[in-house]
Design goal:
Elements: H1 5-18, H2 25-37, H3 41-53, H4 59-73, H5 84-93, H6 95-104, H7 116-125, E1 129-134, H8 140-143, E2 154-155, H9 157-164, E3 169-176, H10 182-187, H11 196-210, E4 215-218, E5 232-238, H12 248-258, E6 259-270, E7 284-290, E8 293-303, E9 310-313, H13 317-324
Parallel strand pairs: 1-3, 1-5, 2-9, 3-4, 5-6
Antiparallel strand pairs: 6-7, 7-8, 8-9
The structure holds S-adenosylmethionine.
């Protein structure tokens, strides 16, 4: 445990901070109660066992993984106010399971609307594409391509023609480090968004039956060269790079190597990662790089936030449009 002493202390500080932070009340109160017992040896031992397998996990990610694990194991008991005695009892009773979940799982969302960026860019490219979604979660964003799921997103007249167009997809492949687990995915919705849990199951079923057929594979973006994947026309990443526990530069190299000549990487994320998100200065953008011009970053599309309710052309939209021919 000594080996992880500093990291354990920083995780305890993070839990304390989350107990005072901007989270909705049940989550904030959970962290506040957890902070009060975080010095107990069984809890510190639990953290050390998780860190043995996952030394690079951030304190914030691990704090949420503990909360999500408890939600998962108790059928969402922590939607309600946390009682100290119950939390202590659950941490002890579920100790091995929490350790296993926190060693292997990731906090995971799958926001369908983000994939409207991908639908529009596919429409602009106007060719048959092999698409790889890297960090695809349970795959529903990818399955939503060519479905009616983007019809409520506001797009100006310039983008309408592309979002409505049926994209020709020869293969759609999703990769994620964890295998799909709907219950875990539901537990990742914090209590303030609990109504989304019902929508998630409904969307998953509907899109599995009627959406774009995809091949979902388990694997890490750090080891993409070891997964049997075809060369791609498009590699898509959304809200993934900040979760990589390891060398993000290696992930970018892997992405570039996996692209065909002329292939593109679309990374959907906030413009700056060191500023407040979802402001005018820091919108959610589709950042495109072409394999052969890797150092040129084109901001092709823009949305006010990563829930993507409205899309406008980004500042480099016209440059990209001309390149598409
Ligand atoms: C926040 S979710 C975003 C999912 C989806 N792209 C979206 O925008 O809705 C991030 C996903 O990345 C996955 N992930 C994290 N690290 C990964 C890695 N090294 N390799 C593959 N997937 C990873 C997580 O399991 C999670 O499902």
């Amino acid at each position: 445990m000594e080996k992880f002493e500093n990291k354990i202390n920083s995780i305890k500080q993070m839990i304390k901070r989350l107990g005072y932070g901007e989270q909705d009340p049940p989550v904030r109160q959970f962290f506040s109660v957890l902070s009060g017992i975080s010095g107990e040896s069984y809890f510190e031992n639990m953290l050390a066992k998780i860190l043995q397998k996952r030394p690079e996990v951030t304190g914030e990610h691990l704090s949420y993984l503990i909360y999500i694990s408890l939600q998962y194991l108790t059928d969402f008991a922590y939607d309600e106010q946390t009682r100290k005695e119950k939390l202590q009892a659950d941490l002890v009773a579920y100790s091995d399971k929490i350790i296993e979940l926190c060693r292997t799982k990731y906090a995971s969302t799958n926001v369908i609307e983000r994939y409207a960026f991908l639908q529009i860019i596919l429409g602009m490219l106007n060719k048959k594409c092999i698409v790889i979604d890297s960090g695809a979660s349970i795959g529903i964003g990818l399955m939503a391509l060519n479905s009616d799921k983007f019809s409520k997103i506001e797009t100006g007249s310039e983008l309408q023609q592309y979002i409505r167009k049926k994209a020709e997809i020869s293969k759609a492949i999703g990769i994620d480090v964890q295998s799909p687990d709907l219950k875990w995915q539901s537990a990742c919705y914090l209590p303030e968004n609990r109504k989304n849990r019902i929508g998630l199951e409904r969307d998953y079923k509907m899109l599995t039956d009627k959406g774009t057929k995809i091949n979902l594979m388990q694997g890490s973006l750090l080891d993409m060269d070891k997964i049997n994947l075809p060369q791609a026309d498009i590699i898509w990443t959304s809200n993934v790079l900040y979760e990589i526990e390891g060398d993000v530069g290696q992930v970018m190299k892997n992405i570039r190597n996996l692209l065909k000549a002329g292939g593109i990487w679309i990374n959907a994320d906030y413009r700056h990662d060191d500023k407040a998100f979802a402001t005018k200065e820091n919108p959610y953008v589709a950042m495109v790089r072409v394999k052969e011009k890797w150092n040129t970053l084109l901001e092709v599309l823009e949305a006010p936030s990563d829930s993507v309710r409205a899309i406008t052309p980004g500042k480099d939209f016209n440059i990209f449009k001309s390149a598409c021919g």
